[in-house]
Write a structure and sequence with these properties.
Order of helices and strands: HHHEHHEHEHEHHHHHHHHHHHEEH
Structural class: mainly alpha
Number of strands: 6
Strand content: 5-15%
Largest sheet: 2 strands, antiparallel
Distance between the termini: 45 Å
Number of helices: 19
Number of domains: 3
Shape: extended
Helix content: 55-70%
């Protein structure tokens, strides 16, 4: 079901139940009021329709807004009362809710969904009135319903960067999916030049075509979200396609692990940016970022290196100590009962020249101040 189809069905039901003609544009306004919005424009600016199981906002329990909006649109009071009673029921029967695009993106970015769960299990969950908020796994096939995709596409066409980013996440390649069948590209190319395929060859060609289509949509929406200035999309474009715009624009905040951002900068041969984001990670309590700063970036700044050492100690790690453990060949901890060859795994502690007493006191004070800020945040 698309948004237009939803509005058309609502219009017909309301007209049948009230013997009153409704303008289609007014139906959109009343749908928005049902979810507590003062206008459809306000709803479309931050949310899209979805299956009720995934909604971040259910039907408004207050019918007063629907009735008031109906009167504002110049319908009689008695008609407004009927609409306020019947429209929420209409939506509930069709299990329609709304979800804020920001909430949708947060779900897609988290580990709370799987790209291809078992379809039968998904349908079973739906039939049981399953609520996505009560389950760690949200099935993407069910979440990305036609009405949700329709809403996102409309919002994206209107220039909403977050809608583009949500579409990019929905169409992202499945990194945990099956490897493509050997020869899938061959049969896809044959189909493109007019070969009539059947059986497994057609299945492979169709699957490959779908994979290519998803990849194209993913890149197109991701790049557009980045072009519109969404930092997390710009970072993803830097990571996937090597575009340095995220770093060139000097973005200070992004919803991502700063150590990961530093790693992307390293791959793009931007050591100053890598150092900047490692410092963000370190001053947030990332001990491994402190170690990397000492070893790769701050070697010539002994005061800063000792500041990182003292900060790591306050966080419970002595970076100057060697840390090794005995392991088996497969990397697991060594077990005497199993026996066999023993290997050492770990790393040497950082080696630094001692600081003069006054500078050492400065390093300790700076580390303490950072540690206090970390714990206060």
């Amino acid at each position: 079901m698309t948004i237009k189809e939803l509005a058309y069905s609502a219009q017909k039901q309301l007209e049948t139940g009230t013997n009153q003609h409704f303008k289609r544009t007014h139906i959109y306004e009343l749908l928005a009021a049902t979810f507590g919005y003062s206008s459809y424009a306000a709803l479309a600016a931050e949310a899209v329709f979805t299956k009720q199981a995934f909604a971040s906002r259910r039907l408004s329990a207050n019918a007063l807004l629907v009735r008031s909006r109906c009167v504002e649109l110049a319908y009689p009071v008695d008609i407004a009362k009927l609409v306020a009673a019947s429209l929420p029921e209409f939506l509930a029967e069709r299990e329609i809710g709304i979800i804020r695009v920001a909430d949708l993106v947060a779900t897609l970015q988290s580990d709370s969904y799987v790209p291809d769960d078992d379809e039968d299990e998904s349908l079973e969950r739906e039939g049981e009135g399953w609520d996505g908020s009560d389950d760690r796994w949200v099935n993407l096939r069910v979440l990305a319903s036609p009405i949700l995709l329709d809403g996102l596409e409309t919002a994206a066409q209107g220039g909403q960067a977050l809608a583009h980013y949500a579409l990019a996440l929905i169409h992202a390649p499945d990194e945990y999916g099956d490897e493509p069948e050997v020869g899938a590209d061959y049969w896809y190319q044959r189909a493109k030049v007019g070969w009539v395929l059947s059986g497994v060859e057609k299945e492979w060609a169709d699957a490959h075509a779908l994979k290519l289509s998803k990849a194209e949509k993913h890149e197109r929406h991701l790049r557009e979200a980045a072009r519109l200035g969404l930092p997390v999309a710009m970072l993803a474009v830097a990571n996937q396609f090597g575009d340095p715009a995220f770093f060139e624009q000097g973005i200070e905040k992004v919803d991502a692990d700063p150590a990961m951002v530093a790693g992307i900068a390293e791959r793009l041969s931007r050591p100053q940016d890598a150092r900047k984001w490692l410092a963000v990670a370190a001053t947030s309590g990332d001990v491994e970022a402190m170690r990397q700063l000492i070893e790769d970036h701050d070697q010539d700044d002994l005061l800063q290196c000792w500041t990182w050492v003292y900060l790591a100690r306050l966080a419970g790690t002595d970076l100057t100590a060697d840390v090794y453990r005995a392991i088996h060949e497969d990397g697991s901890d060594y077990d005497d009962d199993v026996g066999g060859p023993m290997y050492a795994d770990g790393q040497d502690g950082v080696a630094l020249e001692a600081l003069p007493q006054e500078m050492d006191a400065v390093a300790r004070r700076q580390a303490h101040e950072i540690f206090v800020r970390i714990n206060a945040s």
